Amino acid sequence: MITPTTNPANKRKALLLVGSPRGKASSSYALGGFLLRKLEAGGMAVAEMTVSEALQSTENQHRMHKAVDASDLVIVTFPLYVDQLPAPLIQTLELIAERRKGRFAASPWAGPLVQKLAVIVQCGFPEARQNQPAIDIMRQFAKEAGFEWVGALAMGMGGAVKGKSLEKAGGMVRNVVRALDRAAASLSAGGGVPDEATALMARPLMPRWLYLPAANWSFKRELKKHGAGKQAYDRPYE
To answer: Are residue 222 and residue 163 in the same domain, yes or no?
Structure first.
């Protein structure tokens, strides 16, 4: 459900949409929740909702639409699935875009956009650049749905976080914390995601030689858990 804080009328509002199917147990929520707390500390009223909750019922969809309409800033946080957005997030964005069609879409006569959209995306690949196609998709969504695009924070090696809060994730996330701090300061003041924050977020959490064996071991463990260990090296389309 949407979780709001108290909101005096003079406060700007931020909404966090969590696009991971794992909801609040996800690394995406760990990142987005940290940013949301910083925005609240910076004077914004905040609320959060997972897309899984939003899709549960027509009533929840209505609540999500109301929360989006009332927000000055919408932050979408999600994991990369291959090179795409998770299916529940795509469905949610389609609902938002369809409802806003003709009402909020930008036009030369509509004046400046007042609602802003920012994105946090993380992936299990070592390189943060693997997230770029998903960022491009979100930028296009912002354009078509009538949001002002204010930037993205992209992180690789997301599997190392494993849903832990950043406060408990240790020194490996120090640059992530610095990036979110800088982004929060700018977004709270009505700006966008600074280039410095984007660069900090993209830095590797650890050396590649250390991350890859751990990531491969975790992947093989999941295969074995689901009875597919012998299929790890299958090439059905070769």
So the answer is: no
